[in-house]
Amino acid sequence: MKLITAIVKPAKVDDIKVALQAVGIAGMTVSETRGFGRQKGHTEIYRGAEYTVDFIPKVRIEVLVDDKDLQSIVDTIVNAANTGSIGDGKLWVTSVEQVIRIRTGERGHDAL
Amino acid sequence: MDLINAGDTAWVLASSALVLFMTPGLAVFYGGMVRAKSALNMMMMSFAAIGVTTIIWVLYGYSLAFGKSNNGLIGGFEHVGLAGTLDQVVGAEGHQIPTLAFAMFQLTFAIITVALLSGAIADRAKFGSWVVFVILWISLVYIPICHWVFAAQNGEGGWIIDKLKALDFAGGLVVEINSGAAALALAIVLGKREGFKKDPMRPHNMPLVLLGAGMLWFGWFGFNAGSALSAGHLAATAMINTQISTAAAAMTWIIYEKLRNGKATTLGVASGAIAGAVAITPACGYLNPLGALALGLVAGVASAWAVTRKYKFGYDDSLDVVGVHGVGGLLGMLGIGLLATLTANAAGANGLFFNGGATQLNRQIIAIIVVALFSFCATWLIATLISKTIGFRVFREDELTGLDTTFHAESAYDITGNSNRY
Lengths: 112, 422
What we know:
By secondary structure, chain A is α+β, with helices and mostly antiparallel strands. Chain A has 2 helices and 6 strands; from the N terminus they run βαββββαβ. The longest helix of chain A has 12 residues, at 70-81.
């Protein structure tokens, strides 16, 4: 089992959700977050004073997947999140040792 | 009993309510401009100003401002507790209104003037010290200047209006230049906010700022047109001039910043509107509509430039009371000397551009200098006195945490994440 974590542009979250539903994922978690990558921050101007905002709003998406579904779901997210411009975000995959469904106590694949 | 003019009375009563509404408007305007952690404290300073100033006004404020003049410097004590004002009237023959309507109208001016000052010391003043400051400042700075400029008593009243004969229709001296000069003194005595010029101190809620600007714009019609103290031609002139200058300055501010920074901002359009309203305040009853337009066009650019000066000079007038109210008031007062015309108001004057010579302009300049100097020096003394005794500035930790929890045991928002679910 793998955990896919993707940091994406807030405006792309809906596209990603629709695409993931289309390939039949069981669930996903999103959280609002802030940070910077190569894009760096952006500049805002208030009464002529320019402020560099280092941390820009992003959304973190987390999806737990079976090993066999990994590649197709990763591709789905990358395709849906891509705009071609700087600041599209990043995605990484980590191994998951155990998953438990809290309601029933099911473990492993059954809990996905 | 004297006959009162019902139409005039109705307009002054309505105007009093309009002007009072400006101070909550200012609270919203300022509250949105500071960081979320001190937004309530910012708004609280305005609401405290309403309470404290009202009590002072009833006890002795009105009397010292509008009682019988002592050499044009200060009124007498005959109206302490508003004694001798019930059933009395003020105003010219045929345009008389109840003295209490006038007292109420003038009270709302005192309130917003001191509330304006809170913008210079955002995020760093002890709340109790602010309340003490309001008491001292209204008593020792506002009331004398109000008397000098507004207390006309057939040539025997306040020295600026009755002796010098400088013109100030609705408070360019009393409210705007006074608050601008006092704000500079306050910002200097309290010092810069922690992180000034280093940390971004972005307005935390721009929609609130725009709402507040709208409330101020709305109330300003009472402020300016109400200052005619009658419901007729002069009030109409003042009202349309207010609209013209406010709208024009809102546009020139954003044009200027579009050229300078590349973007037209919502804070710019709100600030420009206030700058235009400030500039027309002393002049609204003396200019024709094109004069008001010219003044507004200039005011938007001048204030947009002026608000960036604090970074050069290094004083932290946090919400730009000096750049907007000081500079706007200065422009409006000088504007009278240049653009006033007797066709707009027979009781006014002709300015330099209307074949009036420099006579009126010179009077305006003298009044500006005296009011600005008196206000700056007296405010500096009061603020320094408070600093050296009970302290004016908060502890560094409290400033970093934010003043809302420190002084009011409240926080402005609980809408972030799921924090209210567990």
